[in-house]
Amino acid sequence: MDIQTDDTEGCYLNRSVKFFYEKSGKNISDHWSRRDYVIVSLGMTVCFIVIFSNLLVIGAILKNRRFHFPIYYLLGNLALADLFSGVSYLHLMFHTGPWTIKLSKYQWFVRQGLIDTSLTASVLNLLAVAVERHQTIFNMQLHSKMSTRRVFVIMIFIWLVAIVMGLVPTMGWHCLCDLDKCSTMAPLYSRSYLVFWALLNLLTFSIMVAVYTRIFLYVRHKSKQMSQHTTQMRHRETVLNLMKTVSMILGWFVICWTPGLVVLLLDGLGCDKCKVLRYEKYCLVLAECNSLVNPIIYSFRDKDMRRTFREILCCLCQRGGDKSGVSGVNFNTLDHENSKSRDMELMEKSNGAPLISKHSDEAPSPDSWN
């Protein structure tokens, strides 16, 4: 329990959270208003939808072998970060408003650290996706040849870095011994930490936008040099559609998080005229809504993903020849086209008897990425 006595000279290690809020000018009422009830109710509703929808994405990627490629593992890890974000915001809803002043400093740091960890995990996952797309697109491939083991090592590394970033303020980068440097939005955080965190994320956003811009320019240039061969055209279409999907995910992430990071940056720089507290809750709601966007993008862009969602939601087992949960539409490589020709010849020789396809585990077709 925090008590109202100084632990050491010049520091306030044992002061309550309420003490720091009052010193920073972010006063919190000790009783619930109608506005508080509305915010918490809406916030909890959104959190439950976020958790459910991202569990659905993770389940679809695990269920459908068509998604067992590095890019989908990284997108699944992004969904896991969004799921963690939903849990973090749900935890925030139970520790916000008048409840805030009842928190110990340890509980407050845990509350903020969960949100910091979820954002860092999302940013690093998007950066990993950008690097993976850069590697594959410049080789005009649909999927990276990176081993599954290496992908999972990258995913574990992402979460380790995210956890460390969430723990940094708790480990010492706070203002408990220097009240003049305390933030207004996050009264126990040092302004210098907010500046560092906001600039780091904004810089990462800029790098990812630059990478995707370079990829799009390269693909557009390369597509003009490609012949009109059906296989090459379908390959190019699939690459472009997959690029559009991951770019939409990045774009919405930047749109949802940039306002909040800018407000944090202004607070960290000590902009008293900016009235950051006026925009804080709106930016928080916008950032929370980002975790809802990705499952919607998956649903609208990928027919295979939509179909797998339906299978999970309806709890139906596929019947007939498609028992493995794999779509009947395949991405046609040149080898696949040649194999199909051979299969057609064999079918003609067998008087139209059906043959079992050997290519049920190929990547999604251009038709599946609308």
TrEMBL record:
UniProt-annotated location(s): Cell membrane; Cell surface; Endosome
Gene Ontology CC: cell surface; endosome; plasma membrane
GO terms of molecular function: lysophosphatidic acid receptor activity
Membrane topology recorded in Swiss-Prot or TrEMBL: Multi-pass membrane protein
Signal peptide: none
Coiled-coil boundaries: none
Ranges that cross the membrane: 37-62, 74-94, 114-131, 151-174, 194-219, 239-266
GO annotation terms (biological process): angiogenesis; posterior lateral line development
UniProt cross-references to InterPro entries, sorted A to Z: GPCR_Rhodpsn, GPCR_Rhodpsn_7TM, LPA_rcpt, LPA_rcpt_EDG2
Pfam families attached to this UniProt entry: 7tm_1 (PF00001)
SUPFAM superfamilies in the cross-refs: Family A G protein-coupled receptor-like
Domain G-protein coupled receptors family 1 profile: 53-298
Region (Disordered): 351-370
UniProtKB keywords: Cell membrane, Disulfide bond, Endosome, G-protein coupled receptor, Glycoprotein, Membrane, Receptor, Transducer, Transmembrane, Transmembrane helix
Main location, first listed in the record: membrane
Family of this protein: Belongs to the G-protein coupled receptor 1 family.
Protein's name in the database: Lysophosphatidic acid receptor 2
Annotated source species: Hippocampus comes
